[in-house]
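Hey,

Quick one before I head out. I ran the complex with NAP overnight. Inputs first:
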Amino acid sequence: MTVRWGVIGTGGIARSFVGDCTAAGVEFVAVGSRTLESARSFAAEFGIPRAHGSYADLVADDEVDAVYVATPHSRHAEDALLAIAAGKHVLVEKAFTITADEARRVVDAARRADVAVMEAMWTRFLPQMAMVREVVAEGRIGRVRLVEATHHQALPDDPRHRLNDPALGGGAMLDLGIYPISFAVDVLGIPTSVVAAGTLSEQGVDTQMGLVLTHEGGAQSMLHFGLDLRSPNTASVIGEDGRIDLDSTWFTPTTWRLRDRDGVVVEEFDGREELTGYGHEARAFESMVTSGTHEGGLMDPEETIAIMALMDEARRQVGVRYAADRG
Ligand SMILES: NC(=O)c1ccc[n+]([C@@H]2O[C@H](COP(=O)([O-])OP(=O)(O)OC[C@H]3O[C@@H](n4cnc5c(N)ncnc54)[C@H](OP(=O)(O)O)[C@@H]3O)[C@@H](O)[C@H]2O)c1
């Protein structure tokens, strides 16, 4: 069975995702936008047969099996629920929703409708991350005690930009922090506690934040992210007998080294490749659809909900509130 994809939203990531996935052989049959003009222009650029002037029309398209939601965070739950109600499988951009409550509603609806649901955390699907998991699982760095990871970007400071607008779910954590958080959870599991400190913009979104997560057994994650600064964006997984150092930019296809406990490099890896992670992620989602398993795998919805709850708590501690927090 070939999975026929529809896309909701015609912004930045929709372009990157569709461009990369088309090159990887993924089949896009329709795109939906708030305006027909934008849908038509996107469809023409990427050779997509049908353009719809509303998201409702896109999900009503009988030839669409799976919907990729690429709208601002504040719309994810609503757009995912629209697709699920139309019986479509749904891949939702990160962060999956604004709150854990919203995430739970989406996942419950997908289960009731018997459709596949997944958060589009593409970094998890990179072959280099499979190698990192393998090195850790084989015990080559011993018991993991610390994950260090950052995600910084110098992004537009226009107050109307979705990243700076609380009404659109702006802020560093939902956009950038989700990468190191999801990585730490992938390596060490859901933390037992979270301590957050952050700096807020005049509009009330987090411009930078630091998190200390404590995991089962006392291991910790030290994570930092910000949307108005640059850094090397590297990551390390540190164990009792060695460590893994992922180079800049750690959450994209890159190089990394395995070091022994004295810091001597014992193996070098090159995760750079022809595909970006988007193709791997789309193929993984298609396997869920065609196998009928519908969830589980590398980005399980229960883990997504737990990550959203962790971020709810971090936001509570630093004082970032969105409309969705009011229920
Ligand atoms: N995986 C990744 O590497 C990656 C990278 C960047 C962003 N993202 C995620 O992708 C999502 C979208 O980010 P983006 O950077 O693509 O955003 P963007 O460029 O602003 O595009 C968002 C699109 O959503 C639609 N939209 C619906 N309601 C909107 C509203 N009120 N304001 C603005 N746009 C609205 C618009 O499409 P129409 O006009 O066609 O309806 C718009 O083009 C976010 O969840 C973000 O975290 C993921």
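The mean pLDDT is 97.

Talk tomorrow,
K.
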